[in-house]
Amino acid sequence: MAKEIFHLLLFFFLLTGIQVVESSSHNHHHHRHRYHIKLNSSKLFVFGDSYVDTGNNPVSESRSWHKPYGLTFPGKPAGRWSDGRVFTDYFASVIGIKSPIPYKWIKVKPELIKYGINFAYGGTGVFDTLSTDPNMTIQINFLQNFIQEGVYSNLDLNSSIALVSAAGNDYSAYLSRNGTLEGLPALIISVVNQLASNLKRIHSLGVKNVVVNGLQPIGCAPYITASSSSRQKCNETVNILVKLHNLLLNQAVNKLNSETNGSTYKIINLYSAFTTVLNNTGNQTFTNPLQQCCKGKNSTYTCGNTENGVEMYTVCENREAAFFWDDVHPTQQGWSAVFSALQASLHQLYSSLMH
């Protein structure tokens, strides 16, 4: 199967004339440009999925609002898809602000919109996925409504950042609908093209700086490795497709920057950061990094599931030694390690915020 996918991608590259480049080029991309934002006035607007969602999914429907999610932080379920903090929380710390309030909780604490708003919903994608929650286009509509209502001024938007995450739900939804591997390259093109349109639209609304996460190595997620290697090694066939997504995203972002004659758009290289941590080449060493900490007691259940009030999952004894929390999402310690691996590429961002 891996050989078939390789040949498929090789044919695709020849057909489109795409030049294959090393993924490390994303790192260079971070160091070439600077943000120009004043620390005290910066706001963060977040769009995407569960890697950045901090509590938008419905309480009655989402496992992220059930135990043991939130076990480490804040000590109870709070809508984050982890035992604690997620990427948004760490990214906000770079800007020097509190993690922005989830969109659905604005009426409860409207004063917190001064830090921005998190519009991300776990399970969503660039297009419609199996989730009933709003896709990225609808999330951007929410921001547009706030702007039209005068909640945010042009000055607010000009000194703010948008963080965009598309961590792969479009692809998992496609495969769950019996999509074929042969059809994935065409889907990847569609997803990246739509993602680029979304980035451009966010900027057109007045947000000066737009940051998008590259795709993480999905082939290393426990729900993939469980079937391919009993969670012993990453599925490199899947990761080849991930690299195609990241390659096209890099080209799309370069094109967008050429259209603005500046450095409006940035990519965060999650692939490199995840790989560094999973290979134990970072500062944090994880025991069996491809094993998940929280999992169902059998194949019928997943982390957070209950039956007649009985917990149908188990949680590992040492969460700090686990990179993955459930079958898709990192633990708080995992995200902390990823953030540490990104420190060098985010240093220029942090420095520019201080000026």
Automatic annotation (TrEMBL):
Pfam families assigned: Lipase_GDSL
Gene Ontology molecular functions: hydrolase activity, acting on ester bonds
Signal peptide annotation: 1-23
InterPro entries: GDSL (IPR001087), SGNH_hydro_sf (IPR036514), SGNH_plant_lipase-like (IPR035669)
The keyword Flavoprotein appears for this protein: no
Listed CDD domains: SGNH_plant_lipase_like
Transmembrane stretches, start-end: none
GO biological process, one term: lipid metabolic process
Family: Belongs to the 'GDSL' lipolytic enzyme family.
Record-given protein name: GDSL esterase/lipase At5g03610-like
